[in-house]
Specification:
2 strands; 2% strand
């Protein structure tokens, strides 16, 4: 516990982070319901979410972390389970509706869930010990969005070179979102390949190449066991989830620069303390703390008073 004046601050309740489960559950139910319900996830996240950020605001003083992170660890696995249930619901909807508009809207709604319950959870689990059960679940999550190389590039390059000209996941000042997307996605993939090549793992021995083969095999299996509509819906949700990940990369590091020999500090990532985003994005908004303490679990991250604060309205990057 910490003190503010004469008041003792207690750790924030872990239950607030359960709000992050609203969207995947909503998407599952809406995709099963079909028709106009498939807009549910899009409306909730993109329409209601920003208003909740405004309404709930920021905490005046950050709370100390809890002594036990067990509820948060369980939450990660609940998210991971919901990710695959959401995909099953999408397959169900696309299998029934075929190439109708409902399948594509359902895929976009599912992509929002995949961006959080899939990729953000995989990002957290990807910092666990390689080969552990949590690490493997993170790999499955990344497979569900066709982005298996992410952990390699993120852990070995992005964390080391963030905010430098050598980091493919850092957006330069003046670079548009769309230019960044076109640059960062292939650059990260090629960088992940080169990381393993420097370790002597080339061609089919390269884990990134192996992952690509697994992903292509998965796509073939979806086409064979389902149909082209289900395959298209799966690809759309994966593509949208990847876009959301790189959008987050864009806004979390945009315009912040350091030299290669300059020490990384809290000034090289944008921070945001809006409660709704913190709770639903698993504290990814406390990005400076994550970069300076990569092995620290999300529930222990604390904000920096001196870190650059991300403006609440970031929609202008789409211009």
């Amino acid at each position: 516990m910490s003190r503010q004046g004469n008041e003792t601050l207690k750790p924030e309740s872990w239950a607030w982070h359960l709000m992050g489960l609203i969207n995947p559950i909503l998407v599952i139910l809406c995709n099963l319901k079909g028709d106009w319900w498939v807009f549910g996830g899009l409306v909730f996240v993109l329409g209601v979410g920003p208003f909740l950020d405004l309404a709930l605001g920021k905490a005046r003083t950050p709370r100390p972390p809890r002594a036990s992170g067990l509820p948060f660890e369980i939450l990660l696995y609940v998210h991971a389970a919901l990710q695959f249930i959401a995909l099953a619901a999408l397959f169900y909807r696309a299998g029934i509706d075929g190439n109708a508009w409902t399948s594509w809207i359902a895929a976009l709604s599912t992509g929002l869930t995949s961006g959080v319950s899939g990729i953000i959870v995989a990002h957290e689990l990807g910092h666990k010990r390689p080969g552990s059960s949590g690490w493997w679940i993170g790999r499955l999550n990344l497979l569900s969005v066709l982005y298996l190389h992410f952990t390699t590039e993120h852990n070995y390059t992005h964390h080391k070179l963030v905010a430098t000209s050598e980091d493919p996941a850092t957006a330069f000042f003046g670079e548009s979102l769309w230019a960044f997307i076109l640059r960062t996605i292939p650059s990260q993939y090629l960088d992940a390949i080169s990381i393993h090549e420097r370790k002597g793992k080339k061609a089919l021995k390269n884990p990134v190449i192996q992952g690509s083969i697994i992903q292509v095999t998965l796509l073939v299996m979806i086409y064979v066991f389902f149909d082209s509509a289900v395959l298209g819906a799966f690809l759309l949700q994966a593509g949208f989830a990847i876009f959301l990940l790189e959008y987050i990369n864009y806004i979390r590091h945009y315009g912040l620069k350091r030299e290669l020999d300059e020490r990384q500090t809290e000034y090289h990532s944008w921070q945001a303390e809006e409660r709704w985003s913190r709770w639903t994005l698993l504290e990814l908004t406390r990005h400076p703390a994550h970069h300076l303490k990569a092995s620290e679990p999300f529930w222990k991250l604390q904000p920096f008073k001196s870190a650059p604060q991300l403006p609440l309205d970031t929609t202008d990057v789409f211009g």
